[in-house]
């Protein structure tokens, strides 16, 4: 049944768990990383490339799709799945984060937020009801409640106001999209690095009965130690019987840490954005493609990787394509980085189910904190 | 045996023919269009995309590869096939055209041409022997002799000098790469729109015994009627028992005309360059992707096409990706345009073999001259 969440295995030495979430477009096996398909595409990937990579769920951004091409266009074309040629589960961010990070001249009030498009300056408005309605019309599997997402550091008062408004909007979002339909709705917990504030936020959301709970407001300016500590403190506040989603995080090491804290879902632009900028994530750590050391390197980008990129080209060739500014470089690096992230999550899930999570963590040298 | 060229069918109402050329990396079934992989990649395509498209032969540019990454780098990595992850036949242009069209401060002498790189201004030199040696070291299947390729219109004296130098260089190229090895060598016929000059060029090349003969110096500034007339006059001058290659041409209609004139091989940047600029070649004629008429168009780019792009996305989605400047747009359009060109050539070959070439030409409304 859509919305059913089943924990299939628990690690005994950490809070890590393997689970399944049933959505209208398939079952999401967690822990899972969602590639970011901002405007209805994972940048650089043709639809068939994404399908071949086989992510459990893909994220798209309500904010970007509202601006271009518009919800009505996507709806008229049969919804977001048909539009982007992705048949599996889709989760959309509510736009709360983008309004804070991209849009200009934000004005928050009890009923929503007014802002200007970062594309053309047009004035737009998101209300809790409008935001949820847009996601429902897009036909996504998981909608996110509208939130206020302040950066870190922010004054305590601003974090408190963000939580208060997010809670008030959460109630209205839930009312606009009642439980039991085919679109699941996740609530978002704000509160920055203040554990008591996060606890209060969770307490305000719990009675609303969301299908899942997300930690927002991380990776918004804090250093990695603060992020890791914050996640370790906040994740246990979320109910254990619903999916936990850590929004916008992070590096491969951040994911391993998050999984150990009991997080089920992640999304982040790091693998795709880094790919466009020529940074590869590999089993040997990060590699800068343009580095002169790769000029005559016949080895694949990651000797331990079996992705299509590593099976078909050398570091020297990939470097050559970057220097030639060939769009194929973006494709190749994006495929590799996403494969690395997705393969990592599959390994973590396998390890949890087989009681080897701690052992796997020890085998990943880069999985320790950067600091 | 490498170099064997067999005509398998002839059209009775035109000079069109279907043939096979055996190369060290496979048999090229003609008429065939070679996608342009300028610097060792068909721009925007991952190696596996190119393999899936299945061209008979791919073209790369000696000029670009000399400049970057350098012949010694590719040689050290096992040759151009291994470098670019393309296991099939490769033909390299000699660089004659690029020296004329891209490089700065050209100085021709009897022994070669000195010029400055369009990338960094470095002074470089191509001699007939050096050019052939570079192609041999790249490990390509078909090398082209070094030529002088003046634009049109050019003064008669310049065209004559181009032919004289091209003939002299052709002799030195053939001497540097004798027949019988695994690298085939094609001679290039220049002469602009002057049929007598072209005839003289052919007479000078024939005794050298090239593995194939190319018409250079077309699509270098002349209008389509002059191109068509020139090709119709020049193609019959080439020996019938060797492959005929029309360099740098052209539109789908140009290809159909060329095939009717007895040309076997073509290459052109049109399908790939147009793809990057958002122009699609379709069975309904050219389509400009960004046009507002496609804003809500659920139809595929070409309703009669079964390429991966047309099977996975709508015109509205492709337009959206162009407006969002997503590299996936380039991938999708490049795959479609190349598929269109390659499918056209397969259809033409099939029609020639089955005695239906004239009928097929009549069925392609866009195959008439543009003018």
CA radius of gyration of chain A: 20 Å
Low-confidence stretches of chain A: none
Mean pLDDT across residues of chain A: 96
| Structural category of chain A | alpha/beta
Strand count, sense and barrel status of the largest sheet of chain A are:
8 strands, parallel
Largest interface: A-B, 41 and 41 residues
Q: Judging from the principal axes of the Cα atoms, what is the shape of chain A?
A: globular
The number of distinct β-strands of chain A equals 16
What is the number of helices of chain A?
15
- As a percent range, the share of helical residues of chain A equals 25-40%
CATH topology of the domain at 31-269 in chain A: TIM Barrel
Q: What portion of the residues of chain A fall into strands of 2 or more residues? A: 15-25%
In terms of quaternary structure, the protein is: homodimer
Biggest sheet, spatial arrangement of strands of chain A? 4-14-13-12-11-10-6-5
- CATH-wise, what's the superfamily of the domain at 31-269 in chain A? Queuine tRNA-ribosyltransferase-like
CATH architecture identity of the domain at 31-269 in chain A: Alpha-Beta Barrel
What is the CA-CA span between the terminal residues of chain A?
43 Å
């Amino acid at each position: 049944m859509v919305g059913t969440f089943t924990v299939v295995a628990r690690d005994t030495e950490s809070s890590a768990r393997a689970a399944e979430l049933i959505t209208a477009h398939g079952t999401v096996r967690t822990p899972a990383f969602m590639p970011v398909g901002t405007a209805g595409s994972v940048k650089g990937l043709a639809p068939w490339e994404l399908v071949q990579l086989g992510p459990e769920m893909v994220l798209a951004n309500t904010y970007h799709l509202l601006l271009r091409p518009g919800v009505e266009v996507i709806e008229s074309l049969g919804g977001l799945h048909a539009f982007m040629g992705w048949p599996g589960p889709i989760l959309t961010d509510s736009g709360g984060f983008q309004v804070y990070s991209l849009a200009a001249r934000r004005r928050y009030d009890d009923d929503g937020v007014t802002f200007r498009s970062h594309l053309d300056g047009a004035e737009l408005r998101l209300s809790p009801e409008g935001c949820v309605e847009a996601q429902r019309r897009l036909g996504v599997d998981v909608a996110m409640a509208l939130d206020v997402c302040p950066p870190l550091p922010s004054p305590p008062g601003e974090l408190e106001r963000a939580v208060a408004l997010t809670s008030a909007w959460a109630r209205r979002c839930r009312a606009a999209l009642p439980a039991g339909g085919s679109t699941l709705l996740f609530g978002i917990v704000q509160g920055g690095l203040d554990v008591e504030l996060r606890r209060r936020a969770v307490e305000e959301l719990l009675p609303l009965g969301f299908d899942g709970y997300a930690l927002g407001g991380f990776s918004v300016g804090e250093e990695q130690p603060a992020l890791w500590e914050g996640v370790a403190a906040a994740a246990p506040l979320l109910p254990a019987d619903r999916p936990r989603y850590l929004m916008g995080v992070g590096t491969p090491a951040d994911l391993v840490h998050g999984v150990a804290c009991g997080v089920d879902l992640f999304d982040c632009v790091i693998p795709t954005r880094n790919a466009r900028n020529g940074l590869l994530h590999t089993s040997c750590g990060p590699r800068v493609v343009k580095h002169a050391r790769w000029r005559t390197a016949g080895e694949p980008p990651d000797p331990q990787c079996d992705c299509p990129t590593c099976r078909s080209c050398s570091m020297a060739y990939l470097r050559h394509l970057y220097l030639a500014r060939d769009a194929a470089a973006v494709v190749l690096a994006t495929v590799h980085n996403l494969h690395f992230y997705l393969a990592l999550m599959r390994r973590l899930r396998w390890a949890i189910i087989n009681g080897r999570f701690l052992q796997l963590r020890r085998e990943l040298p880069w999985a320790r904190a950067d600091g």
